[in-house]
Specification:
8 strands; elongated; alpha/beta; Spore Coat Polysaccharide Biosynthesis Protein SpsA, Chain A
Length: 312
């Protein structure tokens, strides 16, 4: 199989059918399959997806038992994708299916492991654009992402990288974070970006906060290291202040007041405590990231084709 297209489906009963029809047309010359993952939709998306499985032989459908979130649904799709390259595309038509060929050409001609799309003009709501900028800034420091790389949800991943990503069995997958743990051979290509065909974005303030915390805590030890660095700085400053105070007293230049000594002891003890907590937190953080055992998703049903059984 040359190409797999993974589509997380959420409340898209009106768009998923036309999207599949466009995919069948624009990829007609390719050997490809489509993996639909219904992420606990509250509309008739599940019924529509079941009908699409009956209509197209190269479509597989997995329905999750409840809404686990976009990244969990994508991870489920990656576990069932068979293609040498896997494209992840949303179900809202903001990314035209024809642009898949652009991503594939970029990867095959230049040898990239991952190719992200970027847009000359984004048609997202201003709130989502603000959230994207915030997350991209955070990932630049926490994941070592290049500043000029936009972490779009529309991307192509080589099979070897997919095989490493699906080894993740924790409950909080962040696909871009998992990608950067595997490879830095990453390209980017400009593609068109359209307005939503139906409905409105599911990107809410709650989801933005959840994503921010997931990236900041689940894929980075920076929160713990802030304590460690703060404790080290306070402890160092208090030591320098203590040395200066001792020299001043011995040379008779000045005699430190009682309040100054009390403040110095408090700062010294606080710095030492934060330093110890930070070091202890480093160990706990490493254990947490290595041994998180909850499943990333739970499948309710499967239909279509011979699905690869990689359930956690």
């Amino acid at each position: 199989m040359e190409l797999s297209v993974v589509i997380p489906v959420y409340n898209s009963e009106r768009t998923i059918g036309p999207l599949l029809e466009r995919l069948q047309t624009c990829l007609a010359s390719r050997m490809f399959d489509v993996v639909l993952v219904n992420d606990g939709s509250s509309d008739n998306s599940e019924i529509v997806c079941q009908q699409l499985v009956d209509a197209y032989a190269n479509v597989r459908f997995i329905s999750l038992r409840r809404n686990f979130g976009e990244f969990n649904a994508v991870l489920c799709g990656l576990n069932h994708a068979k293609g040498q390259y896997v494209v992840i595309i949303d179900d809202d038509f903001q990314n035209p299916p024809e642009a898949i060929i652009t991503l594939l050409t970029k990867a095959t001609t230049e040898g990239f492991d991952v190719v992200y799309s970027y847009y000359a003009s984004k048609k997202h709501h201003w709130f989502r654009n603000m959230g994207s900028r915030l997350v991209n800034t955070l990932t630049t420091y926490s994941l070592g992402k290049p500043r000029d790389l936009y972490l779009s949800s529309f991307k192509l991943i080589r099979r070897e990288v997919v095989e490493e990503i699906i080894k993740y069995k924790g409950p909080y997958p962040y696909i871009d974070g998992l990608i950067f743990r595997v490879t830095r051979n990453i390209g980017r290509v400009e593609v068109p970006h359209n307005s939503r065909a139906e409905g409105r974005s599911n990107y809410t303030a709650k989801k933005l906060v959840a994503l921010f915390l997931n990236v900041f805590i689940g894929y980075s030890l920076w929160p713990i290291r802030i304590f460690t660095i703060s404790g080290a700085l306070l402890f160092s400053l208090s030591l320098l202040a203590g040395i200066f105070m001792g020299i001043s007293w011995l040379t008779g230049i000045t005699s430190p007041s009682g309040w100054f000594v009390v403040g110095w002891v408090v700062v010294l003890a606080t710095g030492l405590q934060l330093l110890f907590l930070g070091i202890l937190g480093e160990y706990l953080g490493k254990l947490f990231m290595a041994h998180s055992g909850l499943p990333p998703y739970v499948e309710k049903s499967q239909r279509g084709g011979q699905l690869m059984d990689r359930r956690p």
